[in-house]
Amino acid sequence: MKFLLFLLLSLRAQAAPWPDFPWLNRTPQSNAIASVMAFSSPYDLQFYRMMNIWRRLEKKYSGQQINFIIIANAEQGLTGSDEVVRNILKEYNYTSPVLLDLNSNYAKSWKAYVSPSVNLISHDGKVTNFDPGNFDPALFEKKFAEDFKRKQISCTT
User: Fold this and answer.
1) What domain count does the chain have?
2) pTM for the full model?
3) Residue 138 neighbours by CB under 8 Å, 6+ apart
4) Domain with 120 in it: what CATH number?
């Protein structure tokens, strides 16, 4: 686990080894200075909320090489999760990276058992978790902006 985390958080010049699961829309930038991952079920209203928040933040921080990623976790016993996710993305014209985690294996590797779970991963390897299941967008945006301002989310050149 530490090895995967180290690779994921590697410096700008190195590529991040994103999983081989199906990516919808596009894959994340491999040279990002930070990645923010939201693990959410497409059957949860939080999924729609995360799309709106990530869209706004991606626009605000455009050009900063930051990945805003949603990991769509499949629900046990429910079939057709991939079709549901694709329809939601199309309906909401969402174009940011979405990982389709059909067996929730990627979510489990991050111990993201509750929807939504949000992790902010900075280039130096620091992972900040945000109250799983009770995500507060205002608190997250404040913490994100503070870290960005203090250059904890920055690129070493």
Assistant:
1) 1
2) 0.80
3) none
4) 3.40.30.10
Asked whether residue 68 is assigned to any structural domain, the reply reads yes
Contact assessment for residue 56 and residue 144, using Cβ atoms and an 8 Å cutoff: no
Enumerate the H helices of the chain as residue ranges: 2-8, 45-60, 81-91, 105-109, 137-149
In-domain check, residue 155: no
Each residue's pLDDT tens digit, 128-138:
888 788 888 88
Residue 154 within a domain: no
Q: Which domain holds residue 145?
A: 2-149
Residue 57 within any structural domain of the chain: yes
Q: Residue 143's Cα: distance from chain center in Å?
A: 16
Q: What value does the CA radius of gyration of the chain take, rounded to a whole number of Å? A: 15
Residue whose token pair is 């949860």: 44
pLDDT tens, position by position, 138-148: 888 888 888 77
Of 27, 26, 1, 30, nearest to 17 by C-alpha is 30
Q: How far apart are CA 31 and CA 63, in angstroms?
A: 12
Q: Which two tokens stand for residue 87?
A: 């329809």
Would the pLDDT of 15 be above 60?
A: no
SS3 label, residue 141: helix
